[in-house]
Amino acid sequence: MKAFIWLFFLTVSLTVLSCSDEVSIAEISVDLSGVDTLYITAIDTIGVEFGQEATVFAFPVACGYTPDGNIAVLDARKITFQIFDPAGEELMLIGQSGQGPGEYQMPLALAILGDGFVVSDLAGSKMIRFNSDGSLRDEINDFGMMPPSLIAGTTGENYLALHVTVNFDAEDGPQAEMVFAAFGDSSEPEVVYESYLLDMDGGTLTAPTQHCAGGIDGEVILAEQSDSLFMLASFSATGEEIFRISDEWNRIPLTEEELAEDQLAFSIVMSEEGTTLDTSREPRTDEYRTIIEGVGVDDQGRIWVQMGDELETYFRIYSAHGELQAVAFPDESIADRADYSISPYGSLAYDPDPDDWPKIYLLGVSEQ
Length: 368
Known about the structure:
about 375 residues; mainly beta; Neuraminidase; 8-stranded mixed sheet; 4-stranded antiparallel sheet; globular
């Protein structure tokens, strides 16, 4: 059987700046007038270089706090979905590698719900739903060409997903549509928040990268990853738009040092021998900074927008109605350009490709 390869490019910096190279808060061109300033620090970590196998991570692609205060970690290279307590003790291994019910070949995305979990298995072409005790609830395998690979949890039973569908029988040729929706027991959306046609020039599908998150009262957040647009929108659980911020930004060229850095790429290879994950470093193809790199909602209902327009990561924090309330800066205890998981249940960070070894950062926030 011929092997099929998918390539995904992640904006993971392969060079962690030393303390002497970091840009100080005073040098960041963020207007701090009228808003609070918060500081983020790592109060503990989970993950070791050598030792107990359960806490040796290989390529974590998603993590987050669970409603009961434990920590879920999805590792694409180990092909594991684990639950830890905050002290780093493994409590549960959910599912396993394989092709049977409740098994996954290449888990790439995780949604933590109020009553369980959803894992997107791209290689297995299915969404797997687990109960909060780790037992299998069901599988959904009729999403078409591939299941959603960008999903987010809510405090309820539904999960959020950005899903691309392709209609090959359209009158004017193949037609692709991006749907941002809440899904439940099937591949049919429960609530559609946004949908639009995508460009399929010459058979190549072009889709904008977006981020989504669920809030404490059922609200839904959508942010676009762009080098020239700041777009942040909020919807009620039933689909009414609460607010939308859409501001054009001047493109910010990458520095010579940033352009010289490689970017991390990983490929999924499926064959009769099984499914494997390979990582490689590729020359950068982008020329400008990404304005928004992530979004989350905390336990106060505040919307945290991870910014990429500066050399140093920082967050803009908005109220549930779209007013800028604060900015937040991670300190040197957290890997530069780490990915963040901010949810009503707690805040974590993780770095799939660090200089030393992968780890999960348990975060604290202060006004020091």
